[in-house]
Amino acid sequence: MKPGRVIGTVTLSQAAPQFRGARWKMLGPMGPDELSGKNPDGCASGWSPVVLDQLGAGEGDVVLYVEGAEATQPFDHPIPLDAITVALLDRYEFDPID
């Protein structure tokens, strides 16, 4: 699992049948600087994954997400999915190991 902050909503004009009615979020991955508060933006630079969200996460929420084959585990049928939210965090503590 990886931590990320919801930075936006993705709207699709067309989607595969498996994803009709699905909610998609864009995440800003969170590394040590973001988790410790050293980065005031709260999101690491780099790519921003788009994830399927079935938890109801909103902009600014911190979530945990998984990518790859683990993202398809909640489904009992094959689905073309690469990332999904798995937890919506109310709070967290980060104590980096030196």
Rg, Cα atoms, Å:
14 Å
CATH class: Mainly Beta
Gross CATH architecture: Beta Barrel
- Straight-line N-to-C gap: 22 Å
Q: List the domain count as a whole number.
A: 1
Q: What does this molecule look like?
A:
By secondary structure, this protein is mainly beta. It has one domain (2-89): Beta Barrel (OB fold (Dihydrolipoamide Acetyltransferase, E2P)), CATH 2.40.50. The protein has one helix spanning 32-36, and strands spanning 2-10, 23-29, 50-53, 62-67, 83-89. The protein has a five-stranded antiparallel sheet, with no helix packed on it.
Task: Please tag this protein with its features.
single chain, mainly beta, 98 residues, 5-stranded antiparallel β-sheet, OB fold (Dihydrolipoamide Acetyltransferase, E2P), 5 strands, 34% strand
